[in-house]
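Reader question, answered in our methods column.
A reader sent in the components of a multi-part assembly and asked whether the whole thing could be modeled at once rather than chain by chain. We filled in our standard form and ran it. Here is what they sent:
COMPLEX SIZE: two components
ENTRIES:
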Amino acid sequence: MNLWNIAYRSVKQRRLASILTSISMALGVTLVVAVLTISGVVKTSFETSTSLGYNMVVGAKGGALQLTMNSVFYLSEPIENIPYEYYLEFLPLEPRQAAYENSHVYRAVAQQNELRELVVSTTAATGGLASSLAQELLNDQLDQQLEQALPWKRQGKFSGFTGLVIPLCLGDYFGSFRVMGTTPDLFNELKYGPQADREYTFAEGRNFVTHSEEYGFYEAVIGASVAREMNLTLGAEIQPSHGAQSGDVHATAFTVVGILDSTGTPNDRGVFINMEGFYLMDDHAKPVDQEEDFQGVEVNKTAPSGLTLENREITSMLLLTASPIFAPSLENTINESNTAQAVFPIKEITVMFDSFVDPARDLLLVITILVCLVSAVSILVSIYNTMSERRKEIAILRSLGARRNTVMFIIMIESFILSAFGGIFGFICGHGLITLGSDAIEGRTGISIGFFDFAPPLGMNPDTIMGSVSPELMIIPGMIILSVVAGILPALSAYRTDVSQSL
Amino acid sequence: MSANTQISKATTHTKLSEMLLQINDLKKAYLQPDGEVLPILDIPSYKVDKGEPVVLIGRSGGGKTTFLHSVAGITTVDSGQILFDSNPIQKLPEEARDRFRADNIGYVYQTFNLLSPFTALENVLLGMTFSKGKTDKEYANWLLDRVGLSHRLTHKPDALSVGEQQRVAVARALANKPKLLLADEPTANIDQANQQSIIDLIRETCNENDVALIMVTHSMEVADQFDRVDKLDDINELAQAVTGGTHA
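And here is the structure of the entire assembly that came back:
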């Protein structure tokens, strides 16, 4: 009969106390597994969320974190809108020019230019100094008008630094989910994932387009969580509510043409509609200032939505600079202006994590460590309390020839059995619970967790042990060792048992 | 006294004498809670041969159990010499005394001292777990069969009668194939009907296995069944002083 068997039988003899002690340990381990796994999910989710394929967010002046929250995570309220013309400054010449040609100002200036040419040709017929003075005066006037009407002079001054820019129009809701007016580039051009190399794919359907014969400007794409929670399928019609979840429901309906695969990004919880359609909803197109001034000015009615540049504005834009080295100076330039602010979302999110999430996780870990200590102490107390009634048992073993070290070792084996059983049971419970909740976790974060998936490493540096090994593989054995160490006290008590007095 | 007992008495210890245990000038005293020293043993000389059965009788509190504990190496002595197979065990460090006990001594207690989490067979196996020989399950089975409990192998002590428990204790005491069996009033807690069978069992198994026996008892009826009956009061000078002096 070996010592393990002796220890096991002793544990079995006090079945109820042993089970309760092990359950105490198991609860501790369950908590550890849950905290570490959730912490890992948050960390992975963070890494995924901050690898959205763009490095800057540009929006109205205000809180940098607020801009990040509403443009990256689709949370919080939008700050303000920024002029559409500002967005155009990030675009190449061709779309920029097309947008300007469809503006009241541009058309008004063009009509004035035509008028000027008429005047010039008329005065030229009369000849002389008066003609050239009138021509010069009209040219100056036209330049001033252009300066006032088009303050950035249609230069596209940021376009050379821009790799990709995607506008966002926020403000509407569908149920509890945010509705974003944007362009098809969001899913056609943008990539995501830790290496920003994963393309958005569709579980069903396709990306929305600017205009289709079937649905006009009113196509929508929804994230995986939206589809699941709102029970939406392809062809479903969505009517956003204006400004808030409880806001007035727009009469305009968008047809779901695509459902995204789960990505683990905030896009899973977003409803994306064509930006043209967004402007066409009630109260979305910006009224043209001093519209009476443009009476008689004809804009390009062949534009897709019939909207002019003056009707448009955006909430923010997601910006991928042409090269990372452009980012700091571009941010600086944008922030120096009075029109908009640029933020690095990863910086803001890191600040947010450092301020809120990391302390919360640390607090949970501290609580967990305390639970572990309590578990270890409970094992200590459980065994120690039995020592007085076990003195005779120990003395009998000693009288049979067991050494002091042997009985001490038996007690420590008992401690190990209790903690190992509790540890394994806790591991099963913890991972079982996580597995039970895996659908909800995947739905919210896009991260799939199976029963045997260990919590990811806590550290960021893969060269260190904290960055390369799952903390479960350190903490759970650590807890078992801790409990065995806790068993030393009763083991010492066994060691000191006076045989002749205890028999 | 049964006929069987008479036969046993006639046939015990007929082998050539060879000394197993020799005690010289053994002294043992206890320190009392009030700080006073209480001398308990002062044995100038005592000997037991190999395979020899001895009954030791004495009054309560006379130091019988202390004497057995000293011989078993469970307790240390203050002075004197305990030679076991010519080896002085009183000088051994505790761990060596544990090994000595595991290899050479079997112990049967008044209160059986079986371990309740274990079955009868496992209790016997425990008797050989700490000795240098390997655990021999067949031998344990044989011992339990020998004490008449082959049908009770898997029963735990709680499920055994007191007589059966003491039989298991006897089997356990013999499990390490000891040279000396110490029995401390083995029938004191056993009903009258079972007392004789336990005495017979101890004596017979010791005889069969050539194991020397020192059995402490109060019962003269038991003592009468053995050739050699020692009175502790006769060998312990402290007891003589008490008997002949103030406590007489």
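What stands out: Chain A has 18 helices and 14 strands. The two ends of chain A are 22 Å apart (CA to CA).
Send us your own complexes using the same form.
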